[in-house]
Design goal:
The structure holds 2 protein chains of 2 kinds. Chain A has one domain: LemA-like domain (de novo design (two linked rop proteins)). Chain A contains 7 helices and no strands. The longest helix of chain A is centred in the N-terminal third of the chain and has 57 residues. The radius of gyration of chain A is 23 Å and the shape is rod-shaped. Chain B has 2 domains: about 120 residues; about 160 residues, Zincin-like, CATH 3.30.2010. Helix content of chain B is about 65%, strand content about 5%. Chain B has 11 helices and 4 strands, in the order ααβαβββαααααααα. In chain B, strands 1-2-4-3 form a 4-stranded mixed beta sheet, with helices on both faces. Chain B is elongated and about 65 Å long. The chains are: A mainly alpha, B mainly alpha. At the A-B interface, α1 and α5 of A face α3 of B.
Chain lengths: ~180, ~300
């Protein structure tokens, strides 16, 4: 009888350990994914001064656009929390859109290799932000589901694990998913 | 089946294939040895070659496969779109960035190799990079990275090397029999062993094909599904498969031993569309894969 009891307790303890380790693995993966997003956001911010300088060389008078972009960049670099980062990143996307709209009016700028290269790199970084965000959100989804589902929610409650926030996409990006037939 | 059970399944399959290979190969050599009246030294030789090629294939399969395929490293500068597409797909799937190679061939095709995600290689033909647009290429790369993630690449690359060894050695023995078998004391040998020997020579390529079959087909469907999970766009891969299959010519420079690694059969014996040919083909019918993707 007592052997059976010890057996049951041992199984329970093993279950708790396995669940706890599972949470820790997922949490580490989320933190890794988050730093992945940070790397791409930083890369994006690093490209901006160069871009602004290049555009300035051809379009000096468009001052409001430059200040908007610079402001958005500073906000992104200062952002600490996840919602702040998402918001600043969206702001930068908006500001860059008007910058590129302005650039349309300058054919010489459009033709310059430097500008084309920067544009290409920026597009690439935006893709990378989107994909790192997708990886982060997928992991957060796993983690949050595990926290709420019985019986792993008992383990989560015992060790005080909390749900993570999703990194929200902009309206613009949500629309971009094209469906072809 | 989760990714983790797929991984352990693939690991065990690798060890099993290696063991079967050593067993068959040594047995094959033993029978040849009986024919040449030196069974023990042939058995030893068979064991030596098979064990060395098994271990060698575990560590060097990627290099051997790339060499067989005639692939060269791809730089970020020259293949910007290919490189960044792979970077993006590794970000989305949480895998380390694989090494990139290209094959100079107009037929669109791609494969992945390497023993685990840290030693992975993704390889595409120049035809694929030219004919497909960005979202198609991303679909193909995500498909290949799914093979990397669940260790399909390990099994597939090792099979490629082992099947290649088998083909090479049976070819070599066939020749030595043809050229060296005449004259001398041929009459003294038992004709039963000669028949047995011929049977072994005929069976070997069939066994090789069967081994290849065990590793493909079903896992292509699985990788297609995982690819969509990474790109969130089933139409990219469906379009890619359509473009890849509509290209009519086989690849210029390829070997049957690595055919099962590619996303689409590089040998293209399309005109034999009977059920029998289908049984011995290393790839599931591409139309079926496209249909499934389009219905996602």
């Amino acid at each position: 009888m007592s052997i059976a009891l010890i057996g049951i307790i041992a199984v329970l303890v093993l279950y708790f350990i396995a669940q706890y380790n599972g949470f820790i693995v997922l949490k580490t993966r989320i933190q890794e994914a988050l730093s992945g997003i940070d790397v791409q956001l930083k890369r994006r911010a690093d490209l901006i001064p160069n871009l602004v300088e290049t555009v300035k060389g051809y379009a000096k008078h468009e001052k409001t656009v430059f200040t908007d972009v610079t402001k958005a960049r500073t906000a992104l670099m200062k952002a600490e929390t996840l919602p702040e980062k998402a918001e600043a990143n969206n702001m930068l996307t908006g500001a860059l859109k008007s910058l590129f709209a302005v650039a349309e009016a300058y054919p010489q700028l459009q033709a310059s290799d430097n500008f084309k290269d920067l544009q290409r790199q920026l597009e690439d970084t935006e893709d990378k932000v989107a994909y790192s965000r997708q990886f982060y959100n997928a992991n957060v989804l796993d983690f949050n589901a595990k926290i709420q589902v019985f019986p792993s929610n008992l383990v989560a409650g015992m060790f005080g694990f909390k749900t993570f926030e999703f990194f929200a996409a902009t309206e613009e990006e949500r629309k971009k998913i094209e469906v072809k037939f | 089946m989760s990714v983790y059970s797929q991984i352990s399944h693939n690991r065990w399959k690798t060890y099993l294939i290696m063991a079967i290979f050593v067993f068959l190969f040594s047995g094959f050599f033993y029978l040849i040895g009986i024919y040449f009246e030196l069974p023990n030294s042939y058995l030893f030789l068979g064991l030596l070659i098979s064990i060395i090629s098994s271990f060698g294939s575990y560590f060097y399969s990627d290099k051997i496969v790339l060499w067989t395929a005639g692939a060269v490293p791809a730089s970020k500068k020259k293949y910007f779109d290919f490189y960044t597409a792979v970077e993006n797909m590794s970000l989305a799937s949480g895998l380390p960035m694989p090494r990139l190679f290209v094959i100079d061939d107009p037929a669109p095709n791609a494969f992945a190799t390497g023993r685990d995600p840290k030693h992975a290689v993704v390889c595409a033909t120049t035809g694929l990079l030219e004919r497909l647009d960005r979202s198609d290429i991303e679909g193909v790369i995500a498909h290949e990275l799914s093979h990397v993630k669940n260790y399909d690449v390990l099994v597939m690359s090792i099979v490629a090397v082992l099947v290649g060894t088998l083909a090479l050695v049976s070819d070599w023995i066939m020749r030595s029999l043809w050229w060296g078998g005449r004259g001398r004391d041929r009459e003294s040998r038992n004709p039963i062993f000669f028949v047995l020997f011929l049977v072994v020579l005929i069976i070997t390529p069939i066994v090789a094909t069967l081994i290849q079959l065990t590793v493909s087909r079903r896992r292509e469907f699985l990788a297609d599904a995982s690819s969509v999970l990474i790109t969130r766009n089933p139409y990219g891969l469906a379009d890619a498969l359509e473009k890849i299959s509509s290209y009519q010519y086989p690849m210029k420079n390829t070997s049957p031993s690595i055919a099962h690694l590619f996303i689409n059969n590089p040998l293209k014996n399309k005109n034999i569309s009977s059920t029998f040919a289908n049984l011995f083909s290393t790839h599931p019918p591409i139309e079926e894969r496209i249909k499934i993707l389009r219905s996602m």
